[in-house]
Amino acid sequence: MTVTPDVLTYYEQGKEDGRLRTGRGRLELWRTQDVLRRALPSPPARVLDIGGGTGVHAEWLVADGYEVELLDPVPLHVERAGALPGVTARLGDARDLPLPDTSADAVLLLGPLYHLPDRADRVTALAEARRVVRPGGLVAAATISRYAAVHDMVYLGVYEHEPHRRAAREAMENGRLLGPAQGFPAYLHEPDEVPGEFADAGLPGAERYGLEGAFWLYGDVDDWLDDPERRRLMLDAQRTLERVPSLLGVSGHLLTLARRPAQAPASPSGGHAGGRARPGCRTG
């Protein structure tokens, strides 16, 4: 991910760890677990958590029996994640992983793509994930929905303020969220553009999952999540809706999954896609 001063300042506040452990952010966490647990290889398997922050996901992956290595460009994140039992953590950039080819059974990018506003950088990060995962191994990446800013600002009651409204509308038009509410610049994807980025990175056949559906916008979502039985029903309901194309953009976040082909295709430059050669990027 791109560590701009705004990004570093935001993450050094330590807010991200709590965001997924409390309030409606738990819906994103639990739905990410739900989708990944159906797709990951059985433990023990080696999982790379790229841009894994303070280890919110690494923690439950280790508890499930996986061997987890976390890479993140924020020193505070690496320090905190490395203190978690069973988690190996070090500094790293999603676009240039300090790891050998085919060295992991699964690679997760649950944050980097929305910190990379340039498409070429996002494709490079996905290509690096493909390079280090074994043939047939899973690559999973999270993205923010193009419409999340409008939805979220209405939910939070700040859409009435012109700077927030302008930022949300600009993000809906060009994907770039620069407004004050987010705390850092971010790229917001159209659901239909994500599979193309995967394909250009040598990961065809990507499948998209809406994580929160419309439930993250419910005023009483915390009450549902606090009650174990109602939470089970909400998670089950979203599982039935997670692949409906017309509903994907309603989710705040999407999770896209693909597997490295057993026979890696040749890269546009003529090299082998399993090596370090960077893939070409479409501009259309």
TrEMBL record:
Single Gene Ontology BP annotation: methylation
Keywords attached to this entry: Methyltransferase, Transferase
Protein name per the record: Class I SAM-dependent methyltransferase
Classification via SUPFAM superfamilies: S-adenosyl-L-methionine-dependent methyltransferases (SSF53335)
UniProt cross-references to CDD domains, sorted A to Z: AdoMet_MTases (cd02440)
Gene Ontology terms, MF aspect: methyltransferase activity
Taxonomic placement: Bacteria, Bacillati, Actinomycetota, Actinomycetes, Streptosporangiales
Domain Methyltransferase type, residue spans: 48-140
Organism: Microbispora hainanensis
